[in-house]
Design goal:
Length: 92
Protein backbone atom coordinates (compact mmCIF):
# COMPACT_ATOMS: atom_id res chain seq x y z
CA UNK A 1 0.00 0.00 0.00
CA UNK A 2 2.97 2.33 0.55
CA UNK A 3 3.84 2.35 -3.15
CA UNK A 4 0.28 3.25 -4.10
CA UNK A 5 0.19 6.10 -1.59
CA UNK A 6 3.52 7.41 -2.88
CA UNK A 7 2.26 7.21 -6.46
CA UNK A 8 -0.94 9.06 -5.57
CA UNK A 9 1.08 11.74 -3.81
CA UNK A 10 3.30 12.21 -6.89
CA UNK A 11 0.26 12.35 -9.20
CA UNK A 12 -1.34 14.96 -6.96
CA UNK A 13 1.79 17.11 -7.11
CA UNK A 14 1.93 16.77 -10.91
CA UNK A 15 -1.71 17.84 -11.13
CA UNK A 16 -1.04 20.97 -9.05
CA UNK A 17 1.95 21.84 -11.23
CA UNK A 18 -0.16 21.46 -14.37
CA UNK A 19 -2.81 23.76 -12.92
CA UNK A 20 -0.12 26.36 -12.18
CA UNK A 21 1.28 26.12 -15.71
CA UNK A 22 -2.22 26.40 -17.22
CA UNK A 23 -3.00 29.48 -15.13
CA UNK A 24 0.28 31.14 -16.05
CA UNK A 25 -0.21 30.45 -19.75
CA UNK A 26 -3.82 31.59 -20.04
CA UNK A 27 -4.12 34.10 -17.21
CA UNK A 28 -0.65 35.63 -17.13
CA UNK A 29 0.43 34.81 -13.59
CA UNK A 30 1.14 31.89 -11.33
CA UNK A 31 -1.47 31.66 -8.59
CA UNK A 32 -1.40 29.36 -5.61
CA UNK A 33 -4.17 27.87 -3.51
CA UNK A 34 -3.75 30.64 -0.91
CA UNK A 35 -5.18 33.16 -3.40
CA UNK A 36 -8.86 32.19 -3.73
CA UNK A 37 -10.92 32.82 -6.81
CA UNK A 38 -14.05 34.92 -6.48
CA UNK A 39 -17.05 35.03 -8.76
CA UNK A 40 -18.87 38.16 -9.92
CA UNK A 41 -21.31 38.36 -7.00
CA UNK A 42 -18.58 37.78 -4.41
CA UNK A 43 -16.54 40.62 -5.94
CA UNK A 44 -19.52 43.00 -5.83
CA UNK A 45 -20.14 42.11 -2.19
CA UNK A 46 -16.43 42.35 -1.34
CA UNK A 47 -16.11 45.80 -2.92
CA UNK A 48 -19.56 47.01 -1.87
CA UNK A 49 -20.56 47.99 -5.41
CA UNK A 50 -23.68 47.63 -7.53
CA UNK A 51 -24.08 45.76 -10.81
CA UNK A 52 -23.88 48.98 -12.85
CA UNK A 53 -20.69 50.06 -11.04
CA UNK A 54 -19.23 46.60 -11.65
CA UNK A 55 -19.97 46.85 -15.39
CA UNK A 56 -18.52 50.36 -15.56
CA UNK A 57 -15.32 49.28 -13.77
CA UNK A 58 -14.89 46.35 -16.18
CA UNK A 59 -15.49 48.63 -19.17
CA UNK A 60 -12.93 51.14 -17.85
CA UNK A 61 -10.42 48.34 -17.28
CA UNK A 62 -10.25 48.84 -13.51
CA UNK A 63 -11.49 45.27 -13.02
CA UNK A 64 -10.11 42.57 -15.32
CA UNK A 65 -12.12 39.37 -15.03
CA UNK A 66 -11.06 36.01 -16.37
CA UNK A 67 -13.83 34.98 -18.75
CA UNK A 68 -14.56 31.34 -17.96
CA UNK A 69 -17.54 29.13 -18.89
CA UNK A 70 -18.94 29.44 -15.34
CA UNK A 71 -18.79 33.25 -15.48
CA UNK A 72 -16.32 35.96 -14.56
CA UNK A 73 -13.64 34.97 -12.05
CA UNK A 74 -11.16 37.09 -10.13
CA UNK A 75 -8.22 36.39 -7.87
CA UNK A 76 -8.65 38.16 -4.56
CA UNK A 77 -5.08 39.49 -4.65
CA UNK A 78 -5.85 41.37 -7.90
CA UNK A 79 -8.64 43.32 -6.15
CA UNK A 80 -6.50 44.91 -3.44
CA UNK A 81 -6.30 48.40 -4.99
CA UNK A 82 -10.05 48.48 -5.70
CA UNK A 83 -10.73 47.23 -2.16
CA UNK A 84 -8.67 50.11 -0.75
CA UNK A 85 -10.54 52.57 -2.98
CA UNK A 86 -13.92 51.18 -1.83
CA UNK A 87 -12.80 51.49 1.77
CA UNK A 88 -11.65 55.07 1.18
CA UNK A 89 -15.01 55.96 -0.34
CA UNK A 90 -16.87 54.43 2.60
CA UNK A 91 -18.57 51.62 0.66
CA UNK A 92 -17.30 49.02 3.08
Amino acid sequence: MNKIDALLDILSKIYHLLVLVYNSKYHGELKFDEDPQMNRQEVKDYLGISESTYKRMVKQGRLKPMKLPGGDKFYKSKLLSEYKESKRRGRI
